[in-house]
Amino acid sequence: MTRGKQKIEAQRKNAEKNQKSKGSQFEARAVALKITCPICKVQLANQNQLGDHYSSKHPKEKPPSDSS
């Protein structure tokens, strides 16, 4: 059994080791996906993907211009 300072240090190290990592994949995804299709609200990473999305999902519509 440890006492005093050793116990406190052991508890602190154990708490740091068991602490969950900061951030999540959902947060990282939200940061990466910056462009949204105004018609169906799909989030896309860049303007090229938006153009591809419009050609496949909304062929009769014209993609919005680069306003970023």
TrEMBL record:
Region (Disordered): 1-25
Top-level taxon of origin: Eukaryota
A Pfam match: zf-met
Residue ranges annotated for the C2H2-type domain, each copy included: 35-63
Gene3D superfamilies: At2g23090-like
Keywords: Cytoplasm, Metal-binding, Nucleus, Zinc, Zinc-finger
Subcellular location: Cytoplasm; Nucleus
Ranges of biased composition (kind: Basic and acidic residues): 1-19
GO CC terms of this entry: cytoplasm; nucleus
GO molecular function annotations of the record: zinc ion binding
InterPro entries named in the record: MBS1/2-like, ZNF706/At2g23090_sf, Znf_C2H2_type
Keyword Zinc-finger attributed: yes
PANTHER family according to UniProt: GEO09665P1-RELATED, ZINC FINGER PROTEIN 706
Name of the protein described by the UniProt record: C2H2-type domain-containing protein
